[in-house]
């Protein structure tokens, strides 16, 4: 997959995204060594690429007839060919919900990163709850954390944070304009 600086917000799948998903279904089945009756794009994220080959990376969440969702990582070239390349297919599973008080680090360690990313100052930065990406590697984890940042209905962020035993927590991405009832789901 080409280098990605920043992924977009999660968006509902469009007809175009569903068509890309269908075009890559057979290849995804071959990689997963499994046939799927249901293979429907639900949401997606994208990241433009401006390197040797110009195009767009996609991460598409697919509902398939399995316990968890599949995530298709693909690259689409710009230009006449619009060639699609399936980079990988993975199943992502998140842990059960935990209270933010159980985090292995203080949210103060990532507040400044979130403020820098959103170009806002948060007077409120209160952790609500979180999930981790399973399986966790020895000593390292990827957390998806819901944080209250305001008193308004959409005053919540969901942060994607990587952390390990010998490193500071690092904000990888965040979703804005979330509310208290917004589900915590996997995102790039």
From TrEMBL:
InterPro entries: Cystatin_sf, Prot_inh_stefin. The keyword ATP-binding does not apply. Belongs to the cystatin family. Keywords: Protease inhibitor, Thiol protease inhibitor. It comes from Esox lucius. GO terms for molecular function: cysteine-type endopeptidase inhibitor activity. The keyword Glycosyltransferase does not apply. This is Cystatin domain-containing protein. GO terms for cellular component: cytosol.
